[in-house]
Amino acid sequence: MARKTFISYKYQDEGYDGGLRDQIINALGRDGIYYQGETSNSPDMGDLTTETIKKNLSDMIFNTSILIVIISQNIDNSQWVQWEINYATHKSSRNGRQSQPNDVVFVVKDELITDGTYRAGIITRENVKNSGVNKISVSASNFLSNPQAYMKKI
After folding, report:
1. Over the range 46-63, which residues count as b (16 or more CB within 10 Å of their CB) and which as e?
2. pLDDT digits over 18-58, tens only?
3. Which DSSP category does 117 fall into?
4. Cα separation of 67 and 104, whole Å?
5. Tally of helices (H runs) and strands (E runs) in the chain
């Protein structure tokens, strides 16, 4: 069963072409139509007010059930990734509807993994650890080979 997803990532670490984010969307195949986040065709939100950005992001995240977090070198320095995680892993209400906390898949960039471990994203992972939601960590190459299998595990 396909689940609506949102991908959280540090923009500067992904580059202007979307990098791993776009690879994940492509790897989702037909399930990619359920992706609710930004794409390479999305308008730049850099000039918007903080409140407008929060509203746009919450609109994208509200109906999702899976949050994919790309663990990159500087992920812990992103206030927006931390905000997205907090919003996605807690219940929210709007217009008489309530969202449920998202399950989380940490997709770790392969170059950050040494001897099966990685040190990037410690603050990010701690924020999710304390939220009580289901979570899993996987290398980017493994996730890209079969994203649905990892999303079913949580």
Report:
1. eeeeeeeeeeebbebbbe
2. 689 999 999 999 888 888 988 777 877 878 899 999 999 99
3. B
4. 5
5. 7, 6
